[in-house]
């Protein structure tokens, strides 16, 4: 089965439309969306309506969550003062723009979606706000995949696509046995210990990048095509009329920096200071 995985559309209807056409041209059997349908972009209602009309399985992103619960997440949502100012402006605009049925749709989205050894999340299985970066500690990365019992974990949130393979993964555990308390002292004596080793088959983490707000240095939309039979991954990059979206950003009264960032395909100081941090609100 060929699965198209899209993420981080961020109210960019032009990019979504172009990606859906590309997916259709590649004859994908199904589409799964990793959330962040709204935020930053000028057409949140149109994006949600398109996703809903196509009945695309979708998990809840951090922006989708914020539109339901408000800005009560921890500091990982705004890793810098500049990002906070821009983010709050975008949140206030989107809060006023979205329709009640849009908010209702975002509220019922699940945090994860699993099928046939594939798991789909926005940030990580632990939080929509956690960044699974390609250089994350291998043990931590493996734990994230195993936490959902998956062979392949699809994520977004970073806006930069990548494929990471975790090969020859091994977990070693030392089990202490025969523990007793010495009679004459307060010392604990370990008489014996056994070592257990667990080996895991190949696991993958695949980041779909971003449809509506890429940060890989180009304005092109990105998504992933995964063939479960061949176990192959194709990172797709789709050109579209991003200048139209930039013009709509300005016309809607959103911060002009959003248009510049979209045109450049840059994150502009958005990366979290501690990308492994998990929101605990």
Topology at a glance:
Elements: E1 2-6, H1 13-25, E2 30-33, H2 44-53, H3 62-69, H4 81-97, H5 100-107, E3 113-115, E4 118-120, H6 138-146, E5 152-155, E6 162-166, E7 169-181, E8 188-200, E9 203-207, E10 221-227, E11 232-238, H7 242-251, H8 256-264
Parallel strand pairs: 1-2, 4-5, 5-9
Antiparallel strand pairs: 1-10, 3-4, 6-9, 7-8, 10-11
Considering the chains and any ligands shown, give keywords for the structure.
globular; 25% strand; 281 residues; single chain; 30% helix; Purple Acid Phosphatase, chain A, domain 2; alpha/beta; 8 helices; five-stranded mixed β-sheet; four-stranded mixed β-sheet
In short:
With 281 residues, the protein is α/β, with parallel strands linked by helices. The protein has helices spanning 13-25, 44-53, 62-69, 81-97, 100-107, 138-146, 242-251, 256-264, and strands at residues 2-6, 30-33, 113-115, 118-120, 152-155, 162-166, 169-181, 188-200, 203-207, 221-227, 232-238.
């Amino acid at each position: 089965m060929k699965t198209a995985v899209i993420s981080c559309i961020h109210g960019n209807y032009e990019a979504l439309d172009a990606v859906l056409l590309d997916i259709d041209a590649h004859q994908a059997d199904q589409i799964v969306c990793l959330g962040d349908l709204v935020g930053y972009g000028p057409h949140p209602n149109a994006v949600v309506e398109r996703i809903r009309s196509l009945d695309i399985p979708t998990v809840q992103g951090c922006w989708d969550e914020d539109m339901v619960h408000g800005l009560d997440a921890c500091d990982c949502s705004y890793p810098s003062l500049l990002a906070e100012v821009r983010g709050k402006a975008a949140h206030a605009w989107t809060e006023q723009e979205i329709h009640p049925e849009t908010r209702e749709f975002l509220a019922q989205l699940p945090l994860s979606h699993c099928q046939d050894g594939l798991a789909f999340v926005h940030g990580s299985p632990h939080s929509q706000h956690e960044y699974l970066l390609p250089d994350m500690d291998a043990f931590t990365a493996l734990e994230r995949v195993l936490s959902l019992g998956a062979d392949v974990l699809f994520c977004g949130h970073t806006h930069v696509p990548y494929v990471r393979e975790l090969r020859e993964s091994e977990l070693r555990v030392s089990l202490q046995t025969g523990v007793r308390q010495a009679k004459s002292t307060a010392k604990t004596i370990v008489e014996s210990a056994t070592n257990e080793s667990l080996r895991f088959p190949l696991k993958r983490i695949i980041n779909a990048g971003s449809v509506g707000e890429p940060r890989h240095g180009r304005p092109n939309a990105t998504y992933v095509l995964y063939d479960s039979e061949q176990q192959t991954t194709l990172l797709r990059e789709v050109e579209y009329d991003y200048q139209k979206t930039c013009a709509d950003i300005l016309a809607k009264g959103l911060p002009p920096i959003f248009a510049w960032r979209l045109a450049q395909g840059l994150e502009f100081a958005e990366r979290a200071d501690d990308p492994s941090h998990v929101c605990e609100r």
